[in-house]
């Protein structure tokens, strides 16, 4: 028989967060090893439970969750999202502008499938959340990575972004707060990006899934609140702020200059109908979550669990010789840099596999987030303080041995 091959549309698609290193970790677990997994922001496994009122409302409504819903989602949760956009100062959003999805991830793929023809380009940050790059590629487009400047707190390099715009560019992706760096962008930076989109007639895709996971009294500015003459597609959901990853409850909001986007919106409606609907139990969680007590505020407050763990991980990592790290202002991650003079890494995926084999700690290499050099990795700071201290100690021990081996 001839070999059965995957579609060539997947040739440029990768998702290293669940890539080869995770497969190796699973094999090691099957062999009886205990692995500390710092590769994914899966809050529940680290003891971050969703608000109880969300769980109880889902249970109470399960009897009504067996049928299909409207293809865009139920009215009540979409109304709650509409009110949320008003709180974020996004004007002109109506119920029909809101799409509920099986997490924001499904909606990212849908948004790209509805927009791109073969050869169209989308500006995506480097480093990025790799689903964006994968979704652009899968839709037949070309992801073009603009650099975020580590020396400027990982903010987008506007000059780099500007020079990468071509006649084929259709959109700009902005991940704010940022995964993997934990950066939070200022209003001034966001306004510069909006101006670029205005000048070149581009759509802005604003991934704001961590908009409440903010530290040190930081404030998040929603991009779609900054203009009404640019088309914005804003994505958010319950996974992170409400510790509800498995509920797969996300939303997408189309706002701003919609008059010239009628055909694109028709395409989104078609794609929403084709998948029939988002899962109904997850939809029942949205209204309660957005209207209830925002317990994320306790976790990110001074002395809150997430803040303590961020501070601890940052100190432990930056105490290691040759390791530097911009302290995250938001989200659940940090993106440390390994000084190439001290850690001459040629293949950072192999580096991560060596760390896994020697110390039983699973991270994701920087190039897995489309970073330009093999000198970073992403760490999830969700484990409790004792486990986080253990994990960072193992990383320090591995790096000490790496330095010794490569200093000879």
From TrEMBL:
Any one GO molecular function term: transaminase activity
Residues covered by the Aminotransferase class I/classII large domain: 34-395
Enzyme superclass (EC): transferase
Taxonomy, superkingdom: Bacteria
EC number(s) given by UniProt: 2.6.1.2
Keywords (A to Z) from UniProt: Aminotransferase, Pyridoxal phosphate, Transferase
InterPro entries listed in its UniProt record: Ala_Aminotransferase, Aminotransferase_I/II_large, PyrdxlP-dep_Trfase, PyrdxlP-dep_Trfase_major, PyrdxlP-dep_Trfase_small
Pfam families: Aminotran_1_2
Cofactor: pyridoxal 5'-phosphate
SUPFAM superfamilies, per the entry: PLP-dependent transferases
PANTHER family in the record: GLUTAMATE-PYRUVATE AMINOTRANSFERASE ALAA (PTHR43488:SF2)
Record-stated family: Belongs to the class-I pyridoxal-phosphate-dependent aminotransferase family.
Official protein name in the record: alanine transaminase
Organism: Massilia aerilata
């Amino acid at each position: 028989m001839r070999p059965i091959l995957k579609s060539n549309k997947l040739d440029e698609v990768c998702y290293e967060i669940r890539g080869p290193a995770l497969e190796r970790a699973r094999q090691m677990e099957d062999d009886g090893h205990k692995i500390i997994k710092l590769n994914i922001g899966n809050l529940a496994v680290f003891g971050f439970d969703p608000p109880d009122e969300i769980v109880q409302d889902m249970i109470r409504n399960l009897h009504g969750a067996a049928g299909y819903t409207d293809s865009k989602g139920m009215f009540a949760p979409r109304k709650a999202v509409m009110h949320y956009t008003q709180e974020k100062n996004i004007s002109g959003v109506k119920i029909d502008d809101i799409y509920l999805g099986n997490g924001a991830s499904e909606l990212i793929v849908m948004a790209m499938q509805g927009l791109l023809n073969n050869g169209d380009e989308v500006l995506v940050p480097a480093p990025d959340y790799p689903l964006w790059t994968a979704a652009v590629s899968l839709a037949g487009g070309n992801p073009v990575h603009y650099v975020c400047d580590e020396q400027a707190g990982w903010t987008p390099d506007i000059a780099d972004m500007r020079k990468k715009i071509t006649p084929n560019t259709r959109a700009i992706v902005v991940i704010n707060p940022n995964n993997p760096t934990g950066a939070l962008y200022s209003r001034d930076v966001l306004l510069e990006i909006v101006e670029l989109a205005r000048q070149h007639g581009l759509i802005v895709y604003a991934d704001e899934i961590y908009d409440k996971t903010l530290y040190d009294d930081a404030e998040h500015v929603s991009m779609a609140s900054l203009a009404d003459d640019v088309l914005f597609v804003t994505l958010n959901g319950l996974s992170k702020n409400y510790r509800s990853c498995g509920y797969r409850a996300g939303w997408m909001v189309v706002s701003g200059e919609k008059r010239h986007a009628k055909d694109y919106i028709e395409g989104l409606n078609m794609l929403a109908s084709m998948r029939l609907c988002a899962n109904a139990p997850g939809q029942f969680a949205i209204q309660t979550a957005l209207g209830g007590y925002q317990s994320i505020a306790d976790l990110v407050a001074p002395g809150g669990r997430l803040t303590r763990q961020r501070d601890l991980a940052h100190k432990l990592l930056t105490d290691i010789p040759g390791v530097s790290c911009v302290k995250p202002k938001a989200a659940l991650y940090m993106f440390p840099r390994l000084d190439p003079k001290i850690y001459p890494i040629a293949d950072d995926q192999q580096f991560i596999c060596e760390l896994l084999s020697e110390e039983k700690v699973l991270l994701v290499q920087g190039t897995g987030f489309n970073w330009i050099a093999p000198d970073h990795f992403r760490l999830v700071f969700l484990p409790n303080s004792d486990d986080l201290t253990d994990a960072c100690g193992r990383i320090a021990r591995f790096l000490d041995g790496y330095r010794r081996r490569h200093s000879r």
